[in-house]
């Protein structure tokens, strides 16, 4: 009899477009692969990378068993032996040098659940020495964009690009890096006659499709944008009503831009003045246009400036918050957005909660453990509330005087879980550092560069991880949309899913009962759905609360069967134009929030999910809705100086009467005493906000919006300077021109 064919749905593991993979199974064997034909991401296709995922998952070089290096030779070992030996070594290091002596390097290749667990695991180990690839790709975007308007993420989506009337692309090459997305650009060209402007020092395959190719000097992005804006302001093309209603600080930008005359812009960027004017005119005449950027804009020492300048261009011309407009920021790996959102970073907890006492208490509540327990694990309040070391610097720590093992900063063990440093600089230093470590652990489906780049003879362990096709869970594409991946086949050889490996390690290290307290364990494998539910309970900052595993699974099923009626009943997309559930997607009792395909949608009132830009100290009345921006009750905000405002606003909203006496006293004490801003206030304010159906807590009929976001940690707080002088030899005052920090207020 013919074998039964079954289709399993997964998501490509190569890039952040998030194309659906339909895996054709016969008797449990993955025999064929198709793109998701009805996925609005795929447009019926895969690129060459996506078309090869089945081969990658079955590659001959897969790591088949745990191995360790002994006397310069690789030796096969059992899982039990590997976990025992690694665990004993880590416990010894912890005993001698403290928990910060071990570094936990996670991955943008992990699912959301694995990322969340990884960050939680590091917290239970007691260290903020945790990070992943986003540090070296788009962390400058997150800092620049979040400081401009709140969420540091793509505002629209890949598939919204075909609604654009023009495309301004800078520092990206989607034809090669995000190939399927290129179809959306070409569709905009075809159906809207949308001019494609590509700014890049290098002529790329994407530039070959451009209507206007702008070759500019590397590192002069800000000058180029200011040069374009010079024409915009000079000709009065800016969107004056939009700026008046929604933007603070544009006058300062206008002042700055005045200096960027065509001659000055040409001198610095090398772009002819006539071309800069043509670009400005094209953008002004074709709105909404979208702004797209990628790592060509972000991997600069001045990249925060670049990303903020791109935002300012969109704000000046009024295209942020509209379909076909927005900032479409192309991220790299398939789950780099999710791993960032879930806090696999040395300076945040899941949901961009900072590291303050209040934030830790919030997560301790979600994790159902005492705050003191976590504090004990860290052994130091200071370490608990300080950013760890970023991935780009860990080797400096390891290279410090290693003979002094009492030195708390001394790094003695590295766990590379799904991370190979191929794209990092200073590889020789990294190699040296790897050789100085007491133990190096690499967890990956393949022996990576990390496994082989050092010349150690002992103390290296390679643990075979299952691929994403051998496990299941959710993944967040660059457009903030969560999709569910089915398990396609059982783990090959002796490989195990990362969540199981972390459980084995936690067991050995002695904190499995606490770390997995409310997570069902099957055999040794934590139930993925329980991990999703747990982060649903804690991720109020950015709206990861409405994407339950049931909804995510249902979305994938129904979108693939065109069952739009069922999908709409579940709060799914009405027009089928996007996939999954893009955050913010607020959870409440009904769990019907459809997600937010366009951030800051200017067509909606703020209280219905419309625009909610970062603002400081603003309280506005909007019909029956009182819009009160400026204080999202995250403890890091409170630490950064919001308690005074928080209390004033609570009073203004009339919510202060819902506080208990203790909470009131605590807030007033903190508000009045600026030396004590670290006191935890978040619990009480959150409770009040939930009671009033505050929008971040999932009620579209909220009578008020109280919303703000944690500042990035000091690591991002270098001054916002333009590129250094040495990039442009005869440019004397460039580094002295500061970009203005823009407080932006959206009134709706
Ligand atoms: Fe995979 Fe990206 Fe290609 Fe889509 S565009 S198939 S997600 S690599």
Automatic annotation (TrEMBL):
Q: What is the scientific name of the source organism?
A: Ferruginivarius sediminum
Where the shown chain sits in the full protein? 63 to 810 of 956
Q: Where in the cell is it found?
A: Cell envelope
Biological processes per GO annotation: anaerobic respiration
Instruction: Indicate the segments forming the 4Fe-4S Mo/W bis-MGD-type domain, all copies.
Output: 5-61
Question: What's an example GO cellular component term for this entry?
Answer: cell envelope
Q: What is this protein called?
A: Formate dehydrogenase
* Lineage of source species: Bacteria, Pseudomonadati, Pseudomonadota, Alphaproteobacteria, Rhodospirillales
Superkingdom of this entry's organism? Bacteria
Give the main location.
Answer: other
- Give the family per the record: Belongs to the prokaryotic molybdopterin-containing oxidoreductase family.
Keywords annotated in UniProt = 4Fe-4S, Iron, Iron-sulfur, Metal-binding, Molybdenum, Oxidoreductase, Signal
The coenzyme or cofactor needed here is:
[4Fe-4S] cluster; Mo-bis(molybdopterin guanine dinucleotide)
Q: Name one GO molecular function term.
A: electron transfer activity
């Amino acid at each position: 009899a013919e074998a039964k064919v079954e289709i399993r749905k997964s998501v490509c593991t190569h890039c952040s477009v998030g194309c659906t993979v339909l895996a054709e199974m016969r008797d449990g064997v993955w025999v064929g692969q198709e793109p998701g034909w009805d996925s609005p991401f795929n447009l019926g296709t895969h690129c060459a990378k996506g078309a090869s995922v089945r081969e990658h998952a079955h590659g001959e070089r897969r790591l088949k068993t745990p191995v360790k290096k002994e006397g310069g030779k690789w030796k096969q070992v059992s899982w039990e032996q590997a976990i025992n030996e690694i665990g004993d070594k880590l416990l010894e290091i912890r005993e001698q040098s403290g928990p910060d002596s071990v570094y936990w390097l996670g991955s943008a290749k992990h699912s959301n659940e694995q990322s969340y667990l990884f960050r939680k695991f590091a917290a239970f180990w007691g260290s903020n020495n945790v990070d992943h690839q986003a540090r070296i790709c788009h962390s400058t975007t997150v800092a620049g964009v979040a400081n401009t308007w709140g969420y540091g993420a793509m505002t629209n989506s890949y598939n919204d690009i075909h609604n654009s009337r023009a495309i301004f692309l800078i520092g990206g090459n989607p034809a090669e890096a995000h190939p399927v997305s290129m179809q959306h650009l070409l569709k905009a060209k075809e159906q809207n006659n949308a001019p494609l402007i590509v700014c890049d020092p290098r002529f790329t395959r994407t530039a070959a499709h451009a209507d206007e190719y702008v070759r500019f000097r590397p590192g002069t992005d800000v000058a180029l944008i200011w040069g374009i804006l010079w024409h915009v302001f000079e000709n009065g093309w800016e969107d004056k009503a939009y700026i008046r209603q929604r933007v603070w600080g544009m006058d300062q930008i206008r002042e700055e831009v005045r200096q960027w005359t065509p001659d000055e812009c040409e001198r610095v960027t090398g772009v002819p003045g006539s071309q800069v004017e043509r670009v400005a005119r094209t953008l002004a005449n074709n709105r909404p246009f979208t702004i797209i950027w990628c790592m060509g804009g972000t991997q600069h020492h001045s990249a925060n400036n670049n990303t903020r300048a791109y935002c300012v261009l969109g704000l000046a011309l009024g295209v942020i918050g509209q379909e076909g407009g927005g900032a479409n920021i192309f991220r790299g790996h398939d789950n780099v957005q999710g791993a960032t959102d879930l806090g696999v970073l040395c300076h945040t907890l899941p949901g961009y909660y900072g590291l303050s006492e209040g934030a830790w208490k919030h997560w301790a509540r979600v994790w159902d453990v005492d705050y003191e327990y976590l504090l004990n694990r860290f052994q130091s309040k200071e370490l608990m509330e300080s950013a760890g070391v970023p991935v780009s610097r860990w080797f400096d720590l390891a290279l410090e005087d290693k003979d002094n093992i009492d030195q708390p900063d001394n790094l003695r063990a590295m766990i590379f879980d799904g991370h190979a440093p191929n794209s990092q600089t200073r590889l020789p230093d990294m190699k040296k550092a790897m050789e100085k470590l007491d133990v190096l652990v690499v967890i990956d489906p393949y022996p990576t560069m990390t496994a082989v780049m050092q010349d150690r003879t002992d103390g290296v362990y390679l643990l075979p991880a299952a691929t994403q096709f051998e496990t299941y869970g959710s993944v967040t594409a660059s457009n903030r949309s969560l999709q569910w991946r089915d398990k396609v086949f059982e783990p090959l050889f002796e490989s195990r899913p990362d969540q199981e490996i972390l459980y084995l390690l936690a067991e050995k290290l002695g904190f499995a009962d606490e770390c997995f307290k409310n997570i069902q364990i099957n055999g040794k494998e934590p139930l993925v759905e329980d991990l999703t539910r747990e982060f649903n309970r804690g991720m109020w900052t950015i709206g990861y609360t409405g994407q339950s595993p049931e909804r995510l699974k249902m979305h994938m099923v129904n979108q693939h069967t065109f069952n739009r009626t069922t999908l709409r009943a579940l709060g799914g997309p009405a027009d089928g134009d996007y996939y999954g559930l893009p955050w913010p997607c607020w959870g409440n009792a009904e769990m019907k929030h459809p997600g937010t395909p366009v951030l800051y949608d200017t067509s909606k009132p703020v209280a219905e999910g419309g625009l909610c830009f970062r603002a400081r100290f603003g309280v506005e009345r909007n019909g029956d809705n009182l819009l009160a921006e400026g204080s999202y009750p995250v403890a890091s905000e409170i630490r950064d100086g919001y308690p005074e405002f928080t209390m004033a606003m609570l009073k203004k909203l009339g919510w202060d009467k819902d506080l208990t006496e203790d909470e009131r006293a605590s807030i007033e004490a903190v508000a009045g005493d600026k030396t004590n801003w670290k006191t935890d206030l978040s619990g009480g304010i959150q409770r009040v906000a939930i009671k009033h159906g505050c929008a971040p807590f999932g009620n579209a009929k909220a009578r008020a919006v109280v919303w703000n976001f944690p500042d990035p940690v000091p690591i991002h707080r270098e001054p916002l300077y333009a590129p250094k002088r040495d990039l442009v030899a005869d440019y004397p005052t460039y580094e002295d021109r500061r970009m203005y920090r823009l407080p932006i207020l959206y009134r709706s």
